[in-house]
Amino acid sequence: MYSQWLSFFYATSAFFAILESMNLRLGFLCFILASFIQVNAQISNEVLEDKILVNAKDSGLFGFSLLNTNYMRNTEYFNPIEEGRTLFGYQLQPKFTYQPSANIAIEAGVWLRHDFGGNNPYTTALPTFSVKATQGNMQLVFGTLQGSLSHGMLEPMMNINSIIDKRIENGFQFKYTPKKFYLETWINWENFIQPNEFNKERFTAGINSKVYLKKSEDESLNLYYQFMASHQGGQIDSDTIDPFMMQFNQALGIRYTRKMAPKFSVLLDAAYLNYTETSDSKVNPFTNGMGVFANAGITYSKTDFMFSYWNATNFIAPRGTYIYQSHSTVDSKNYEENRQLIFFRIIHNKPLFNSPITASARFEPVYDLNNGIFDFSYSLYLVYRGDWHFGKK
Predict the structure, then answer these.
(1) Which of 100, 234, 256, 345 has its CA 20 to 30 A from that of 89?
(2) Of 110, 138, 134, nearest to 55 (Cα)?
């Protein structure tokens, strides 16, 4: 018991040291600290994650799976960096599956996205094909990846809306998951070009890694490192307008979770992020930046509550959530050198009327400290996953 509370003390001290360095008001800190007196672990997007299943018992079997994600996400934003919008529709991903052996799965299907009120039957229709192989603590995926929010990246580096408008990623993915360590690395090839094509080659590469200093059923303390590189370039294109560009984001952080009671858990998380850019043309007014992201959360039963604080200077993330960035999506000529935001998030995940459909409801107010603007967003996701196998062993 002593060692558990000692770990909690160290994690708490590191978390609040970062907050103190950012001159966050004492009253806000005290409010967060008081919340911990009563408080499952980190707010998770597990409901929205993509999974390719490999089960030894399904070796030699054909199958069919269906993923249906219904979404309604509305951002009531009136700030100078990200303007509000509404995403309202559904996604369908039917797939045929086959396991030629106990540790290999092959999937082929189609991903369909329909936005209500759109001019076309489907906003997006894409083929999907994946080969997943597992061996011990290792996983390898070639083709359509377990992508988007499944990578587990911080919101400033991975756009929360990517689950809707950029869910499908294609390339290569590798995971290594022994007991005290986690590593995922991937490459998402976004734009392929032919010789002399007037376009740029584009891809994103990423790393998500964790080292567990303490890991048990009730408690976890880990250090993590995240990295994303966005490439725009190529040697065979004829595009002389868009510049060659490499943009990099990194995050180094510490995360502590503790189960205090059967239905109560706490989370402390703090990370330092940076941005660097290499280009043959001056696209942005700055080529490097940094940010500090601090989170404090509680879970009661099936509801998550989290406070988040973001303080960044000249920060850009090409695949990140827009509101965190210094570069404006409202006016390309506008940027804010410093961004300071406070979020309060409420997320409730629960089976819908005791059915196989999982509902995830979210309400996320955000206050822009520099501009004195209060914005908010709310979302509802209904997710159904079906998996059937045919034939006999």
Answers:
(1) 345
(2) 134
Q: Exposure of 185 by Cβ count < 10 A (0-12 exposed, 13-18 middle, 19+ buried)?
A: middle
The residues with which 143 forms a beta bridge, in sequence order, are 130, 171
CA distance 386 to 352: 15
d(C-alpha 12, C-alpha 390), whole Å: 51
In this predicted model, what pLDDT tens digit does every residue of 264-281 receive, in sequence order? 999 999 999 999 999 887
Burial state string for 61-83 with b = 16 or more CB within 10 A and e = fewer than 16: bebebebbbbbbbebebebbbbe
Using left for φ > 0, alpha for ψ between -120 and 50, and beta otherwise, residue 181 falls in: beta
Half-sphere exposure of 232 (CA within 13 A, CB side): 19
E strand segments, the chain: 62-78, 83-101, 104-115, 124-135, 138-144, 170-176, 181-191, 201-215, 219-233, 245-261, 264-279, 288-300, 303-313, 338-351, 358-368, 373-390
CATH of the domain at 375: 2.40.160
Record the tokens describing residue 125, joined without a space: 């229709």
Task: Specify the number of domains making up the chain.
Answer: 1
Tell me the pLDDT tens digit for each residue of 17-67.
444 444 443 333 333 333 333 333 345 688 899 999 999 999 999 999 999
CB neighbour list of residue 310: distance below 8 Å, 6 or more residues apart: 156, 291, 292, 293, 324, 339, 340, 341, 342, 343
State both tokens at 19: 């907050």
pTM over 0.90: no
Whole domain around residue 345: which residue ranges? 2-390
